[in-house]
Design goal:
The structure is a single chain. It contains 7 helices and 21 strands. By secondary structure, it is an alpha+beta fold. It has a single domain (27-67, 83-318), classed as Thrombin, subunit H (Beta Barrel). Strands 5-6-7-12-11-10 form a 6-stranded antiparallel barrel. Strands 4-13-19-18-14-15 form a 6-stranded mixed beta sheet, with helices on one face. A hairpin with a 2-residue loop joins strand 20 (293-295) and strand 21 (298-304). It is globular, with a radius of gyration of 20 Å. The termini are far apart. The model is unreliable at 1-21, 73-84 and 94-103 (pLDDT under 50). Keywords: Signal. One of its GO terms (biological process) is proteolysis. It comes from Rotaria socialis. Belongs to the peptidase S1 family.
C-alpha cells in the first residue's frame, strides 16, 4: 500500500516539474483593438498623433536597475536545457530610407520604442529582425509588460533611427505584442524578451522595406565580440543612438543563464540589440540578445538573456503572423 502511495506521489511531482519547465517557454500576447466609432486608419493616426515631439522628449526610460547585485536574482531550478543546435536567419538588406539614414554606419533597423504604461509615458529601444511578415521588432519583455503591476503597456510606437525628434523612416504603430511567460508570470530575466508586430504604413508597405533587418539567432557563442545599440538617456538625453562594443561572457550570476558585457549604456537602452558580426557597410548583422538589466553597484556591466531554443521558438511562432 505504502509503495503504491509513493509511486503516485512521485508521478504527481514529476508532472508538476514538467509543467513548470514548459510554462516558462510559453507566451502571452495582446492585439491592438480598434475602438468602436473609429476606423483602423484613424486609430493608427490617433496613436501617431499621441506621440508629439514634446511627449517623446519627456518619456521616462523604462529601466531594470537593480539596487544590489548580491543575491538578488531568483534561482529557478526548472529551466529548460538549451540544445547545442545553432540556428540563424540571414539579415535583410536595406532597400529604402532617406539620405540621412544612409550617411551613417549606425543601423537603420534600430530605433526608439515608445509606450504608455500605468498612465505614464515611457521609452525603450528596439530593433527590426528578419521575418516572413516583414513587420517584426524585438525588445525587452519589461518594455511591454510590467511584472509588478501585472499589466500590459499600450500606445506602442516604434521610430527607427530617431534623431533629436526627427523620424527619418516614419512612425510604426503596433498591431500585436507578445512576451514569454517566464517574464510575465515569474519575472525570470532569462525570458526578458518581447516580440512586437507593427502595422504597415498608409501605402501598405512593411517596415523591413525601409529599415532592412537584423538576422536572428539561437545558441550562438556566449564568448563573442558584439555591438550593442540603444538610446540611453544619460547620453545626449537619449536624443541620438549610442553604441558600445566588447566581448561578452557567460554571466556568473546565480540562477541566470544569460550573458554580460562591460558596457555602460544605461536607462533608455533597454531592449536594444546585441549584434554579432555587425557589418558597418550593410549596417546589419546577427542579433543574439537584447539589453535587459543592470545593477547600481556595478554600473559598467550590462546583462542580457541568452537566445536559446525557447526564444528561437518564440520568434518562429510570430514571424508568420
Amino acid at each position: 500500500m505504502w509503495a503504491l502511495v509513493l509511486i503516485i506521489i512521485t508521478l504527481l511531482t514529476t508532472t508538476v516539474h514538467v509543467r513548470g519547465v514548459n510554462n516558462h517557454a510559453r507566451d502571452s500576447s495582446i492585439e491592438r483593438q480598434t475602438p468602436r466609432g473609429m476606423t483602423r486608419e484613424s486609430h493608427i493616426r490617433s496613436i501617431i498623433d499621441y506621440w508629439t515631439p514634446e511627449r517623446m522628449a519627456l518619456a521616462h526610460s523604462m529601466d531594470l536597475l537593480i539596487v544590489n547585485s548580491s543575491n538578488v536574482l531568483k534561482t529557478i531550478a526548472e529551466k529548460p536545457r538549451q540544445r547545442a543546435a545553432i540556428r540563424r536567419s540571414v539579415p535583410g538588406t536595406l532597400v529604402g530610407g532617406s539620405s540621412q539614414s544612409r550617411s551613417s554606419t549606425l543601423p537603420s533597423a534600430v530605433g526608439k520604442f515608445f509606450f504608455e504604461m500605468n498612465h505614464a509615458d515611457y521609452v525603450c529601444s528596439a530593433s527590426v529582425v528578419i521575418a516572413d511578415n516583414q513587420d517584426m521588432l524585438l525588445t525587452a519583455g519589461h518594455c511591454v509588460y510590467d511584472f509588478d503591476t501585472q499589466s500590459w503597456g499600450e500606445n506602442f510606437i516604434f521610430v527607427p533611427r530617431y534623431t533629436s525628434g526627427s523620424r527619418p523612416l516614419g512612425s510604426w504603430v503596433w498591431r500585436k505584442v507578445a512576451t514569454l511567460n517566464g517574464w510575465r508570470q515569474y519575472e525570470d530575466y532569462d525570458y526578458d524578451v518581447a516580440v512586437v508586430l507593427v502595422e504597415t504604413n498608409s501605402n501598405g508597405e512593411h517596415i523591413d522595406e525601409f529599415t532592412g533587418s537584423l538576422g536572428m539567432t539561437s545558441n550562438w557563442k556566449k564568448h563573442a565580440f558584439v555591438n550593442v545599440f540603444g538610446y540611453p538617456v544619460r547620453i545626449n538625453n537619449g536624443q541620438t543612438m549610442s553604441m558600445c562594443t566588447g566581448t561578452t561572457s557567460a554571466s556568473a550570476l546565480n540562477g541566470f543563464n544569460g550573458v554580460e558585457l562591460p558596457c555602460r549604456l544605461g536607462g533608455g537602452s533597454s531592449g536594444g540589440p546585441w549584434i554579432q558580426e555587425y557589418d558597418t557597410g550593410k549596417r546589419n548583422g546577427y542579433q543574439t540578445s537584447v539589453v535587459s538589466f543592470g545593477f547600481d553597484d556595478r554600473p559598467n556591466i550590462s546583462f542580457a538573456p541568452y537566445f536559446g531554443d525557447s526564444i528561437w521558438n518564440f520568434y518562429q511562432k510570430y514571424q508568420n503572423q
